[in-house]
Design brief:
Elements (H helix, E strand, L loop, with lengths): L7 E2 H8 L2 E3 L5 E2 L1 E2 L9 E4 L16 E5 L10 E4 L2 H10 L10 E2 L4 E2 L4 E2 L4 E2 L4 E2 L4 E2 L4 E2 L4 E2 L4 E2 L4 E2 L4 E2 L4 E2 L4 E2 L4 E4 L4 E4 L2 E4 L6 E3 L4 E2 L4 E3 L6 E3 L4 E2 L4 E2 L4 E2 L4 E2 L4 E2 L4 E2 L4 E2 L4 E2 L4 E2 L3 E3 L4 E2 L7 E3 L8 H12 L1 H15 L18
Parallel strand pairs: 4-5, 5-6, 6-7, 8-11, 9-12, 10-13, 11-14, 12-15, 13-16, 14-17, 15-18, 16-19, 17-20, 18-21, 19-24, 20-25, 21-26, 24-27, 25-28, 26-29, 27-30, 28-31, 29-32, 30-33, 31-34, 32-35, 33-36, 34-37, 35-38, 37-39
Antiparallel strand pairs: 1-3, 2-7, 22-23
């Protein structure tokens, strides 16, 4: 299914997205380009003011700019409150990567009890099991598996080798990148006299509308209740979300993050790459967690959090590590001095008073 026109005029783009035109409203735009060097007949954008000087040199047919940069625009352009967002909306008009023709490939296996909507594409070697439902206008790519009783909302796009397990529910317009696995068995085991025994994982996974899930990301089914990913969530590649987790609306999580079971992450959170999050904790709305952080306790106030040491020259890093390793000895020396001088302190040093009552 194609949504792409050959070209748009600047005036048409401005009207469609509520933008202001600078220059020739009849100028034709047939695609997008980078600002440097730019291409005639295509449109670029400027969001970072440090590249403002490029506006005088670009060969782009037009540039999307913010209001603060409009005066520096030498040629045709569109003025937006948010240049990056406006450019993203325009760029989607020229994205041919999502075009497809409806139909079922001859090598696909579709159970007779499956329900396939109108305008659906089912690619080579895909498997649609009994009772599965595929919403109108969805794309099921090569070698994807949609398990028995799973529900795929209208307008979904499953790229190659996506595995949707039994009973999983996806909302409208979800995008699942290659190799993602949704609804696999959660890591539930209990110790027994002969070793580990399996704890059955009887819940499922429920995914809201307009969710994007990156390549090779895994979301485990719940043990009893469902694992839930709310509307508008963005998950990068190679993320692990364990059983019974709940991710709030419009939260974005970067690659290689792992979230242990039964953790709740609030709405509109931003979690950096390679973050490790403990199980059975709560992270409230509007929290930002910096990359490579280790989250071991609940975060109950919105704000920006980080942990770990940022990169430094090796000799400086070694000195820092050596200092950290000496902290225990330093603590013993301080305690000894306190005892000799009669200074009274709290043993844990973390009573919320920032040490003000220690003297």
């Amino acid at each position: 299914m194609s949504r792409v026109a050959a070209a748009y005029t600047l005036g048409e783009l401005a009207q469609r997205f509520g933008l202001d035109v600078i220059g020739d409203a009849a100028a034709s735009i047939s695609g997008v380009c980078t600002l440097s060097p730019g291409e005639p007949g295509r449109i670029g954008f400027l969001a970072n003011p440090k590249y403002r000087a490029t506006l005088a040199q670009t060969r782009a047919g037009a540039v999307v700019v913010g209001k603060r940069d409009a005066a520096a625009l030498a040629g045709n352009g569109l003025v937006a409150a948010d240049a990056a967002r406006a450019f993203a909306q325009i760029a989607r008009l020229f994205d041919r990567n999502r075009d497809f023709e409806p139909g079922v490939h001859v090598s696909a296996v579709v159970d007779s009890d499956a329900v396939i909507g109108q305008g659906v594409h089912i690619g080579p070697q895909a498997v649609i099991e009994a009772g599965a439902q595929i919403g109108d206008g969805s794309y099921i790519g090569p070698a994807c598996i949609v398990g028995a009783g799973a529900q795929i909302g209208a307008g979904a796009r499953l790229e190659a080798r996506v595995h949707i397990h039994r009973g999983v529910r996806l909302g409208l317009r979800c995008q699942i990148q290659p190799g993602a696995v949704i609804g696999s068995r959660g890591f539930g085991n209990v110790p027994g006299p002969q070793g580990w025994e399996e704890m059955p994982q009887l819940g499922s996974v429920v995914i809201g509308d307009d969710v994007e899930i990156g390549a090779n990301t895994t979301i485990d089914r719940g043990a009893i209740d469902d694992t839930v990913i709310a509307n508008g969530v963005r998950l990068d590649n190679l993320i692990q979300i364990a059983h019974n987790c709940r991710i709030g609306e419009h939260t974005a999580i970067a690659a290689c993050t792992g979230i242990a079971g039964s953790t709740t992450v609030g709405a509109r959170c931003m979690i950096g790459g390679a973050v490790g999050i403990n199980g059975h904790i709560t992270i409230v709305d509007d929290v930002i967690i910096l990359g490579r952080a280790m989250v071991t306790t609940s975060l109950l106030e919105k704000g920006v959090y980080g942990s770990g040491l940022p990169i430094a020259p090796a000799k400086d890093w070694r000195k820092t590590v050596a200092r950290v390793r000496r902290l225990g000895k330093l603590e013993d020396r301080v305690r000894s001095l306190e005892q000799k001088t009669g200074i009274k302190t709290h043993d844990d040093g973390d009573d919320g008073n920032d040490g003000k009552d220690q003297l």
